Amino acid sequence: MKPRRLKGHKAAVACCIASRARPGIIASSGEDGRICWFDLRCKDVLFTIDLGEQPISSLCFKAGNEAIVYASSGTKVSCLDIHMVSSWKPLETYNYNKDEINQIAYSSKSNFLAAADDSGDVKIIDTSQQCLYKTLRAVHTSICSSVQFLSWKPWTAITGGLDSKLAMWDFSRGRTYNVIDYGMPEVDSTVSCGNVGQCLNPAFVHSIAVPEMDMLQGLNKACAVARGDGVVDVIDLESELATVKSKNFQSRSKKSDVQAANHAIGRNLVKRTQLDYSLGGHTAAVSCVSFSLFGERGKFLISGGNDACVKLWDWSRHFCAEQTSCNNALILNIDLKKKGCTVIIGIFSKRKFCFWSLQDIS
Predict the structure, then answer these.
(1) N or C terminus of the chain with fewer C-beta within 10 Å?
(2) pLDDT at res. 240
């Protein structure tokens, strides 16, 4: 499968996002300080926005109004209206981060914007009041590379970093519900994977994806994690949080109450599925992961890695209590024959898959 090349940038591309409301619309940002706007029905780039000389590390649409785009550059987040073609002056700017921002995300259920930076901090910004709401800190000991909000659980965000930690936050209080440390040996018997062997690369968290509320009823409370050891980890967050709640309950309850609580959650144990190289997965760090927007939304996971490969996984078929093997989870493999980070976007258009490599957008 030959990828289509979208040209418009003068330097390496850092981020690429697809419109959910308008299939075929793509926005990308790069180290040239430029945002490019593409419509796949057209041959050339529709328009470009030059914000300056600093690289634009991340983009996100405003939930419910994709004419508004947020872009991070250095320690600053800018808010842009794409209808203002005569002047690209930002509507708003936020400069609360003390170190370079790696990713920004907008909540689908509120007016909060999150910005994760190199210091390990995450700034939660209230865009309706145009002020800093909360700082999430003292968990990540290295770069915080990714952040997402959970649409099904208000006031909850999830972050990942290059300290191999995945943290679930109550951002209204600035406290964590739970922290998963991928740097520690896996001892959980509820983890389903193809091979328990550890790759040489550290299990840094490079990317996080969470499904939307309208994706796959009953399975939309999961999270996909792109790891530096070549593994795509899929976690049942609802079960993870229920188990943490149960442990907290056990620590302060008598034995009979503990047994009743264990029985109540017995059918909903923590479930993690690891899609690794033994299942045909990546042989190098996974740099990006996303839930599919085509067909039955969220049915597939799309991952891209430093092995220049794109993988399509049928994760939903294997993410259930009675399933014990993931051997047939890999549906499609595309080798792009070019080393380096890969960003993938899939959209639904006449039942066709569309993929783009980060290096191909140039």
Answers:
(1) N
(2) 84
Over the stretch 153-177, which tens digit does the pLDDT of each residue have?
989 999 999 999 999 999 999 999 9
Residues whose CB is less than 8 angstroms from the CB of residue 245 and which lie 6 or more positions away in sequence, other chains included = none
pTM above threshold 0.90: no
Q: Lowest-confidence range among 109-123, 142-156, 271-285?
A: 271-285
CB-based burial label for 87 (10 Å; 0-12, 13-18, 19+): exposed
Q: Cα–Cα distances in Å, from 191 out to 205, 226, 230? A: 18, 16, 16
> How is residue 346 written in tokens?
């899939």
pLDDT one-digit tens code per residue, 285-331: 999 999 988 778 888 999 999 888 889 999 887 766 555 566 788 99
Report the DSSP pairing between strands 191-193 and 272-275.
parallel
Angle, alpha carbons 235-249-176 (nearest 5°): 50
Give the Cα separation of 37 and 18 in Å (integer): 10
Q: What are phi and psi of 47, to 5 degrees?
A: -160, 165
Query: Do strands 131-136 and 122-126 pair parallel, antiparallel, or not at all (unpaired)?
Result: antiparallel
Q: State the number of CA atoms in the 13 A half-sphere of 194 facing the CB.
A: 19
Calpha distance 237→223 (Å, rounded)? 7
